[in-house]
Design brief:
With about 375 residues, the protein is of the alpha/beta class. The chain contains 15 helices and twelve strands. The chain binds pyridoxal-5'-phosphate.
């Protein structure tokens, strides 16, 4: 294919997205009161966290950058100590840090599920899990969202080792997986449950340990993925599991092996974020108070919604409608984003409203009033 033809194809694809109103664009502009980020506890903007990081950073004498992959020159005592801290915090035998949640899922699934194995995943799992499964060459099937009887049905198709994959909190819907039932289901021989705790980290459990620990299920889960870029306000992720799993990933997870390790500043920042969770967990209670305040305000404006996590999916079916409601919210000073199809199924277009510990009750009441009024007017 000539360069001209490749460029024509790129232009055609962009034009087709643009015609459908689905062209994604980068924009540094903030669109009002934050009701869209995953910074649930406000750590990304926390003066207390910044202070801790600066203090620890000033004491640090090592190199800025890792200078290579961990298996070559990029490893450090800092990495090892932080992994021990994270494993202890999450009551897991071992933790392995990846550069992002995306890398963690890609590396975990592509390596752990072999050609003769089967992965069965909830139909709403994140793209990083799907991409990892695709790279694995294992047989894979999705099951209906949170439907254990459909999972059971799909399991009849399984061969080899069986990996069942769920998120504790679903990133676009904000609802929870039935982890206790899933854990009992996976007690059958040859089955392993993997839980992505990206949106539960910092939110569930007294110190934000996640939903698995809140329910006391640590010993029943084969692997957990915790990310540091959401409630912890930084970046990166850890896979928790046995020390054999850790060693396996060090040997076979390509997104771990073939990439430059994180710089020291990131590791120090993640460490300080965990320290803040341990030492000042009251912010988690504040987050839950705000969640309750938001569902009460929504109900008073005719939207019945029972918050199970900071993520609220408020349906406004149709891409045009969802986009128009998001624009109205932004014009009124609320940074609320629409999630359109095909990211979510047609007919399930929505506003994804994320509530944070730092949102005031007045802000939440204002947003609920606006959404309620728009819904009534449609
Ligand atoms: C459930 C889930 N897993 C993994 C990721 C990826 O994490 P990261 O942003 O650290 O790459 C996300 C990010 O949105 C997510 O929602």
């Amino acid at each position: 294919m000539t360069l001209g033809r490749i460029e024509d194809r790129i232009k055609e694809k962009l034009a087709s997205r643009s015609e459908k109103g689905l062209l994604r664009r980068l924009s540094p502009e903030k669109r009002g009161i934050d009701l869209s980020s995953n910074d649930y506890l406000g750590f990304a903007r926390s003066a207390a966290l910044r202070e801790r990081v600066e203090r620890k950073w000033n004491e640090y004498q090592g190199p800025l950058g890792a200078g290579g992959a961990r298996l070559i020159s990029g490893d450090s005592e800092l990495y090892h100590e932080l992994e021990r801290e994270i494993a202890e915090f999450h009551q897991a035998p071992a933790a392995l840090i990846f550069n992002s949640g995306y890398d963690a899922n890609i590396g975990l699934f592509a390596s752990i599920a072999g050609r003769n194995d089967t992965v069965i995943y909830d139909e709403l799992v994140h793209a990083s899990i799907r991409d990892g499964i695709r790279l694995s060459n294992a047989a894979s099937y999705s099951f209906r969202h949170n439907d254990i009887s459909d999972l059971e049905k799909k399991c009849r198709l399984a061969k080899g080792s069986l990996f069942v994959v769920v998120e504790s909190v679903y990133s676009m819907d904000g609802d929870l997986a039935p982890l206790e039932e899933l854990a009992s289901f996976c007690e059958r021989p040859g089955a392993a449950l993997i839980v992505d705790e990206a949106h539960a980290t910092g939110v569930f459990g007294e110190r934000g340990e996640g939903l698995v620990q809140k329910l006391g299920l640590e010993s029943k889960i084969f692997a957990r993925v915790h990310t540091f870029g959401k409630a912890l306000g930084i970046h990166g992720a850890a896979v928790l599991g046995s020390s054999e799993l850790k060693s396996f990933l060090v040997n076979f997870a390509r997104s771990f092996i073939y990439t430059t390790a994180l710089p020291a500043h990131s590791l120090i920042s993640v460490w300080c974020a965990y320290d803040l969770l341990k030492e000042e967990p009251t912010v988690i209670n504040l987050l839950w108070e705000r969640l309750m305040a938001f569902s009460t305000a929504l109900a008073s404006h005719g939207i019945e919604y029972s918050s199970t996590s900071p993520i609220h999916a408020i349906y406004f079916p149709g891409n045009e409608t969802a986009r128009a409601v998001a624009a109205a919210a932004q014009n009124a000073g609320f940074d609320i984003r629409a999630i359109l199809s095909p990211t979510v199924p047609a007919g399930k277009e929505r506003l994804r409203v994320c509530v944070h510990a730092f949102n005031s009750e007045d802000e939440l009441k204002g947003a609920a009033k606006l959404l309620g009024e728009v819904k009534k007017s449609l």
